[in-house]
C-alpha cells in the first residue's frame, strides 16, 4: 500500500494565530485586526505553487494585512506557525515503513517553511520515503493532478493508496479519484484508524 500523509495538523501541529501574534507585536497592529484580514487567498496559493518568490509573497501579504514589516520580521512570524510533532503519527509512519509499506508526505507548503521545518523536525523527513511538496511540483491540493502525479511516480493505483489530511476539500478531491481518504480531526485520528485496522 501507498500511505500519503499531509504535513500540517497531521504530522506537525500548526497554528496560524501564532504567526499573526508575532506580526501583531512586530507591526503594532491589533491581533483581532489581523485575524479579520487574514485569508489564504490568491497570493497564498501562488506561493504554495512556487509561482512567486518569498519576497513577493511577503510584500503582497503585508499589503493585504496593512502591515509594515521587514522581510526578516515577516519570516520570523511565518515560521512561528509550527507548534510541534505528533509523535504517535511519526511512530506509525516508521512502523509502516518497517513492514515494507511505502510512506510519503504530500504537503501544500512553500520555500520559506521548507527551509525551516526539516532542520527543526528531522524525525519527520526520516519517517517518509519521499516528500512531495507543492512549491516544487508547481501544483497544490485539491488539484486532482497532484495526486495523479504522486500515484504515477510511486507506481500505485488509486485503490492501492490511503490519504490522510485535515482539510475536507482535499479529502473530497482525493476520494473523487478513488483514493481511500481519512480526515484528520486531531492527534487521535490516525492512531485510532490504525488501531481499528489491526482489530
Brief sketch in words of this structure:
The chain has 13 helices and seven strands. The protein has 199 residues and is of the alpha/beta class.
Describe, in plain words, how this protein is organized in 3D:
With 199 residues, the chain is α/β, with parallel strands linked by helices. It has two domains: 2-13 and 85-198, Rossmann fold (3-Layer(aba) Sandwich); 14-81, DNA polymerase, domain 1. The protein has helices at 16-27, 31-37, 42-48, 54-65, 71-78, 87-98, 111-114, 117-120, 122-126, 134-137, 144-154, 168-176, 189-198; strands spanning 2-5, 12-14, 82-85, 102-107, 130-133, 161-165, 180-183. The strands form two sheets. A five-stranded parallel sheet has the order 5-4-1-6-7, sandwiched between helices. Strands 2-3 form a two-stranded antiparallel ribbon. Strand 6 (161-165), helix 12 and strand 7 (180-183) form a beta-alpha-beta unit. Helix 1 (16-27) packs antiparallel against helix 5. The longest helix is centred in the N-terminal third of the chain and has 12 residues, at 16-27. The protein starts with a strand and ends with a helix. The mean pLDDT is 95.
Amino acid at each position: 500500500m501507498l500511505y500519503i500523509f499531509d504535513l500540517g495538523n497531521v504530522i506537525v501541529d500548526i497554528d496560524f494565530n501564532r504567526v499573526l501574534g508575532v506580526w501583531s507585536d512586530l507591526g503594532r497592529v491589533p491581533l483581532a485586526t489581523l485575524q479579520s484580514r487574514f485569508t489564504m487567498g490568491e497570493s497564498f496559493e501562488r506561493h504554495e505553487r512556487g509561482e512567486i518568490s518569498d519576497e513577493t509573497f511577503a510584500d503582497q501579504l503585508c499589503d493585504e494585512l496593512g502591515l509594515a514589516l521587514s522581510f526578516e520580521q515577516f519570516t520570523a512570524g511565518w515560521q512561528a506557525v509550527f507548534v510541534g510533532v505528533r509523535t504517535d503519527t511519526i511512530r506509525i509512519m516508521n512502523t509502516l515503513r518497517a513492514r515494507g509499506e511505502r510512506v510519503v508526505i504530500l504537503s501544500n507548503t512553500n520555500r520559506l517553511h521548507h527551509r525551516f521545518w526539516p532542520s527543526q523536525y528531522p524525525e519527520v523527513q526520516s519517517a517518509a520515503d519521499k516528500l512531495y511538496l507543492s512549491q516544487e511540483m508547481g501544483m497544490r491540493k485539491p488539484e486532482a493532478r497532484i495526486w495523479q502525479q504522486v500515484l504515477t511516480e510511486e507506481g500505485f493505483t488509486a485503490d492501492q493508496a490511503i490519504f490522510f489530511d485535515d482539510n475536507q476539500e482535499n479529502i473530497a478531491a482525493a476520494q473523487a479519484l478513488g483514493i481511500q481518504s481519512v480526515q484528520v480531526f486531531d492527534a487521535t485520528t490516525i492512531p485510532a484508524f490504525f488501531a481499528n485496522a489491526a482489530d
